[in-house]
Amino acid sequence: MWVVSDADERRIVVGHMSENGTAALRHPDAASLHEMWSILRGPRPAPFRAELDAERIGAKAPYLAIFEHVGPSNFRVRIAGDRLNRWFGLELRGMSVLAMVEGPARNHMQAALNRVVADPSVGVVRGRARALDGRAQPFEMVLLPMRSDFGRVDRVLAGLWMLDQTAPVACPFLLDADEIHVCPIDAGEAPVTITEPPHDGGFAEAPAPSPVAAPHDPAAPQRRGARGHLRLVKNS
After folding, report:
1. How far apart are CA 75 and CA 97, in angstroms?
2. pTM of structure
3. Which residues contact 182 (CB under 8 A, 6 or more apart)?
4. Is 112 helix (H, G, I), strand (E, B) or coil?
5. What is the pLDDT of residues 169-202, one digit of tens each?
6. Cβ atoms of 65 and 160 closer than 8 Å
7. Strands annotated E in the chain
8. Widest pairwise Cα distance in the chain
9. Phi then psi for 76, rounded to 5 degrees?
10. What is the CATH number of the domain that holds 84?
11. Is 47 inside a domain boundary?
């Protein structure tokens, strides 16, 4: 079992999701995205990125992004929906995924992404989207592994939604992740059939631009006394 803890000994259990993977998902669009991905996957560990098209994505496209694994513990935003760019207040394409996350939670997000492509696994991240003025809103992000044209699991389909659908979203914001669920994929799991409405918009993946580092590179030396409050440990 994987456990996340902080300096105050607050522990967040990283548990397994249910058999169909949707019971841990609170936002209906997150659950729908997982079901769509399951249909594409079939009996395989992960579907190909090329199998993802506008008709299948439907109206969820503005809330989605494709992350690319470009090196050890290095993920870049390959493409991001318009709503995500607006929420974060900048064009995300080409940036480090960790640029979307507050500094103390970056190790937490990095560990989740590493497992999503390595196992592969389905990941669910929850926490607070914190705006510059201090306002915060609960969010849910689902992370789904995808294969590139070369067959490697080096893409992640990510969907981000606010859990309070009635409140206005204060932005720009960064994500403060404090909970994660990981489900190693059973390649023999039978997919669930759903119907996706057609949508005019697309989600074509553009060529990768020159990478942009996160504003605060977690690999850079930290000031004395500075430490991330989340770390990942493994219990045997």
Report:
1. 6
2. 0.74
3. 2, 14, 15, 16, 17, 112, 115, 116, 119, 121, 122, 123, 124
4. helix
5. 999 999 999 898 888 987 544 333 333 333 334 4
6. yes
7. 2-5, 11-14, 64-71, 74-80, 121-131, 136-147, 153-162, 173-184, 231-234
8. 53
9. -120, 150
10. 3.30.450.20
11. yes
